[in-house]
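Entry type: protein chain
Record version: 2
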Amino acid sequence: MNGGLVVGEERLFFGLDLVRGTVFQTDPSGRVSRMIEFGSSSEASGVGGLALDARGFLYVADPVGQKLRVFDPEGVKSRVIGEERRLYLAGGLQLVERDGVLEDPNDVAVDAEGNVYVACGEQFIVHGLQKFSAQGLHVLSFSSLGEPGGTFGGPRGLALDPDGTLWLCDTQFHRLQRFGQGGQFLDVMGPPRDEPLVSPHAVAVLPDGDLLVAQSLGLVVLGREDARRRPFTNRPLARVCDVCCWAGTVWILEREIGGFGVRVSRFDVEGNLLGVAVSGMRDLVGKASAWLKAEMGRSLPHSRAWHRLGVLHHYVLPESSSNLKHAERCYRKSLQAEPAGFEVCLDLAEVLTRRGRPQEAMRLYRESLERRPEDESVRLRLALLLCRTGGKPQARQLLLAGLDLNPESDLLRGELDRLA
C-alpha cells in the first residue's frame, strides 16, 4: 500500500515509507502534533494500513518488518503482534509456518471488542487473513487462493462494516469479499457477476452502506444493493494509497509515482472537496519542522528533534545540494547534544557520501563499527563505500571479519561472493 490513513476524534494519522516507517499525527487542518518513527539501520520497517481501537491505541501494519506494531495514545510503542517466521519442509519445499506469522501484512482492522484482523498480501496459499485477540494472541486463520466463497489471493485492504462484518480487497482476483468475525464467507463483489474491478487495494464503508474502493483504475463507489460502480469524485487524483470514512467525511491519502509527493484531502460523501490537510512533501516537511522546533527541549530531547529535522531534509525532500547541506547541519547539532547517537552517525555518513566526502563518511562508519561490531548493516555500508573508492581488498577483509563474528550470515557471504 505504501502508506496508510486512519481518522479518529479530531485526530488524523497517516503513515509513509520514508527512510524508516513514519506515522504523522495531525489535526483536521494538517497541523502536525506528533511523529511516530520505528525501525532502524539494522531493522527494516515500512507502513501499510492503520487502525485505531476504542482506547485510542494505534495499529500499524509493517509489510517490510513483517509485523503489526501497536502504539499507545501518547505514541509510545506498546507491543508487537506477529510471531517470528519458522521454516519447515513439506514435499521437499521450504515453507513458512503461517499460523500467527505475518508475511507482508498490508492492512489492519480492529473491531469493537478489540479483536485485530490483519491482511497479509504475500500469503497466497493459506492464512492470508488472520484474527488475533485483544491481547495479541492468534485466534483464527482464513483460507486463501481460489474461487469466491472464503478463498482469495493477495489480500490487501480491510474495512469493518457497522454490522461487524469484514470487507476484504481480494487484489489478485479483482474483487471484494465479506466475512463474519468467525471467518464465515458471506458475500462477494466483483467479476464475473458485477462490473469489474482492477486490483482493488483499499476499501471504506460509506454511511449509506455503499463501498468506496481504491483500485488501479481509480477511486470508485460500489452500490451495496446493486453493485453498480460509479466514480467517487470528478476531481483528478494521484495514486490513491488509502481511504477512510469518519463521521460522514471521506479522507483520501494520495502518493505520486516515485514517492516524492503526498496529499491528504477530505471530501463529503458525494465526492465534493472540503479541504486539503497536506498538499505536498514540502508542506508536510514545513508543518513537521514547526512541530519539532516547538517541542525541542520540551517533549523531545534536542538530539532527537535535530535528528528528525535532518531526516526530513535528507530523505523526505528531493535530493539537492541545499537540502543535503541543511540535513548535515541538523545531524551535527544532534551529535553536539548527544555525541553517542548511533543512528545519527549513520545518517550523517550517508549525507557526507552524497556530498562527495567519502573519507569523512568512512571515518564515521569505522567509529560506528567499533561501537557495534556485530551490526551487519554498518559493515556492509562501509564495504560498499570502500569498493567505490578503490578499496576492494579492504572491503573483502572487512566482510571476512564480519563472518568470523557471525559465520551463518547469508548477507555477508552473499556480498563476499559478489566481490569475488
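Comment: Residues 321-337 form the longest helix (17 residues).
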